[in-house]
Amino acid sequence: MKLRETVIQAAYSLRSNKLRSWLTTLGVAVGVFSIIAVMTALQAVDRSVASGLSSLGSNTFEIQKYPAALFGGHGRARFINRPNITYNEGLAFKKLMAGKAKNIGLQVSSSGNLAMYANLTTNPDVTLFGADENFASANGFDIATGRNLIENDILYSKNVAVIGQDLLSTLFPSGENPLDKSIKVNGKVYRIVGVFMKKGAAFGQSQDNLIAIPISRYLAHINVKRSLSVTVEAFSQKKYQATIDQAIGAMRVARGLTIEKPNDFELRTNEALVDSFREFQRTISIGAFIISFMALVTAGVGIMNIMLVSVTERTREIGIRKSIGAPKKSILRQFLLEALFLSLTGGLIGIFTGTGAGNIVAVAFNIPPILPVAWIIVSIAVCSAIGISFGLFPAYRAANLDPVEALRSGK
After folding, report:
1. What is the distance between the alpha carbons of residues 143 and 161, in angstroms, rounded to a whole number?
2. Are 106 and 215 in contact (CB under 8 A)?
3. How many degrees, rounded to 5, is the angle at CA 168 between CA 167 and CA 172?
4. SS3 223
5. Closest Cα partner for 105 from 115, 85, 91, 118?
6. Alpha-carbon span 98 to 104, nearest angstrom
7. 24 by DSSP, 3-state: which?
8. What are the backbone dihedrals phi and psi of residue 377, each rounded to the nearest 5 degrees, phi first?
9. CA angle, 161 then 162 then 168, to 5°
10. How far is CA 218 from the centre of its chain?
11. Is 117 helix (H, G, I), strand (E, B) or coil?
12. Nearest to 196 by CA among 219, 167, 233
């Protein structure tokens, strides 16, 4: 039998048992779906991490109470008893680091805020920053209109604000000049003195949905108990590590830590974020591989089972074909093709659905859709191996049936 005829016969045999064939392919689809979905999602997060690191310049790092990385398994509970980084400690740190860093910004923030202007209102998801005059430059924000916060704003706790582009488009949709207009944030009034340039998203979060007010006013009127975050920009990449070492020492002095006490603050650097994510990625990948492997082995057993049943049901057909001269390799090839079809069909279903499910994460993180080409190739190769390996025994059994016995006992 020619290969084309063998393929047609294999497809016809599977089509005659549609329900059984689809149930068998479902097992393969589940295994492939799990690995493709997870790997697509991880690639989406990986891209988001890469783009999000641009929010910290290559020469910039942060000092804060809690670890910034969420991927390393750090529980916030173990850090909750640490004392907050206070405003006075931040000022002392800046004084100790004078001339040792290009820029040092102090900031404190809270999410879930609501802003109003006239009869327009934002969603209650605005991030409110209490910031000093160095916040914008240290964190890579540029001014599009108006001015930045200045020393006198912080010194006299003025009720002024600089807003992001998301608030500009929501509260001033008609293009009205926002400068010197008064907005309400959680019932408190602030006068707009500037608008930040558009910065885009980082880690799936908009960096334009924010309001910056003087840190002194924030601490006095919003939340005096919030812990500060300190952003430090080194003069150059060459001096980056030296600046980190100096900053750790300065923060220890500012917080009054004696030599035997460990650091009670965290350092956020690009490298630390990447390392934490890689650890998270490895853990999830191993888990996904184990789950997928078990699902695919189970599916392979299902393929072997359905092929053995098929051999039993088609004993007479096999006997007739062998009695009229069909060679063993033709029978073997047909049953192997049937097993391969089942496995590859399930694999293709898993690839399409897994890619779609994984790209939900890409949509959530505002990045372009991802096609995990390498994992798709691996999945197709694995499905082919599953179909051939688990279909080999039934195919061998069919090919070696005695034609006389097959005709005598077959239905």
Report:
1. 12
2. yes
3. 115
4. coil
5. 91
6. 9
7. helix
8. -60, -45
9. 115
10. 32
11. strand
12. 167
The owner of tokens 């209102």 is: 121
Integer Cα distance of 29 and 6 in angstroms:
25
What tokens appear for 182 in the block? 């008064």
Tokens of residue 189, six digits: 């009034």
Whole-structure pTM value: 0.64
Count of alpha carbons within 13 Å of 273, Cβ hemisphere only? 21
Closest residue by Cα to residue 150 from 132, 138, 163, 137 = 132
When computed from its CA atoms, the radius of gyration of the chain, rounded to whole angstroms, is: 32
Token pair 């589940």: residue: 30
> Mind giving me the DSSP string for 211-276?
EEEEHHHHHHHT-TTPPPEEEEE-S-STTHHHHHHHHHHHHHHHTT--TTSPP-SEEE-HHHHHHH
pLDDT tens by residue, the chain, 411 residues: 455 655 565 565 656 666 677 777 888 888 888 888 888 888 877 776 666 555 556 688 999 988 765 444 455 667 788 899 999 999 999 999 999 999 999 999 999 999 999 999 999 999 999 999 999 988 889 999 999 999 999 999 999 999 999 999 999 998 899 999 999 998 899 999 999 999 876 666 778 999 999 999 999 888 778 899 999 999 888 898 899 999 999 999 999 999 889 999 988 887 766 676 677 777 777 887 787 878 888 888 888 887 787 777 777 777 777 777 777 777 787 778 878 888 888 888 999 999 998 888 878 777 788 888 888 888 888 888 888 888 888 888 877 777 766 666 655
